[in-house]
Amino acid sequence: MRKITLSKLLSYVVVTVSLILLAGCSGTNQNPDPGIEDGTYVATFTTDSSMFHVSEANKDRGILTVQDGRMTIHVSLQSKKIVNLYPGTAQDASKEGAELLEPTTDTVVYSDGYEDEVYGFDIPVPVLGEEFDVALIGTHGNWYDHKVIVSDPVPGDDIQKVISEGEDSADTSSGIDIADGEHKAEVVLSGGSGKATVESPAVIRVTDGKCTAVIIWSSPHYDYMIVDGQKYKPVNAEGNSVFEIPVPYFDKPVEVVADTTAMSEPHEIEYTLTFDSASLK
Q1: How far, in whole angstroms, is CA 128 from its chain's centroid?
Q2: Of 25, 71, 193, 245, whose CA is between 20 and 30 Å from 202?
Q3: Cβ(109)–Cβ(118) under 8 Å?
């Protein structure tokens, strides 16, 4: 009699444990509620790295697709130097059998009509508005960990329309009262290798309250600059590279990108320019 009781008890335990495991498994297979309806959105994609980000032409935006509760964002990066991504950590990405994200070849169009071919990726999005892991591998074969955030989805699939509606791209007001005319102000360049410099003070031109600066580099090898997604070509044909770019504000760093042809192949370098309002003359 005792044997039968123990046998039944053991059977009950086995059945109970099995039901618990099955319940747990079925729960993990369900898609989490993304909080938005199925559809296509323009969303913001930000990262923890100045070397891993969306092309300046798209200003941190990508196309978010939500289907059956699963979210994926397609982003066009700034070049073809990132050859694979992995939705997780670098440690997991380097393991045998890890399924890497393969690039697409995208064409991005800047506001001045200039077109460029870059790599794009379809990245699974586990949650909106919170950090998650994405690892990348570049042309040198090393994996790196990064954190990214996908946020602010807007219904639609036209990135440039969302950009134009969300910000006045023509507004280059300096934020301070400067008389129209030609002035000068001290400018500090930061970033890059530290070898390049720009002439300071720089000429500041003001028309209808909008400021531009004449930036003269210490090298003739810069063939374009990018400021706030807009590409600018040199205004001179000989000598060190000279650009006239907008000054959106004074006294805090303005992020710019400058492309140099001095290396074996053209290379975009990220800098900041800080214009000192106290030095205006």
Answers
A1: 16
A2: 193
A3: no
In angstroms, the CA 279 to CA 178 distance is 12
The rounded Cα 145 to chain-centroid distance in angstroms is 15
Query: Two tokens at 215?
Result: 């930036």
Assess whether pLDDT exceeds 70 at residue 33: no
Dump pLDDT digits (tens) for 224-279: 999 987 889 999 989 999 999 999 888 888 999 999 988 777 888 889 999 998 89
| Cα 240 from Cα 197, distance rounded (Å) | 11
Global pTM?
A: 0.58
| Exposure string for 246-259, b = 16+ CB within 10 A, e = fewer | bbbbbeeebebbbb
Provide the mean pLDDT of the chain: 84
Please give the DSSP secondary-structure letter assigned to residue 102. P
Closest among 260, 237, 232, 243 to 203, alpha carbons compared: 243
Q: Hey, what domains does the chain have and what are their CATH numbers?
A: 39-166 (2.60.40), 181-279 (2.60.40.1850)
Residues 52-92 have pLDDT tens digits of 989 988 989 999 999 998 999 999 998 899 999 999 999 99
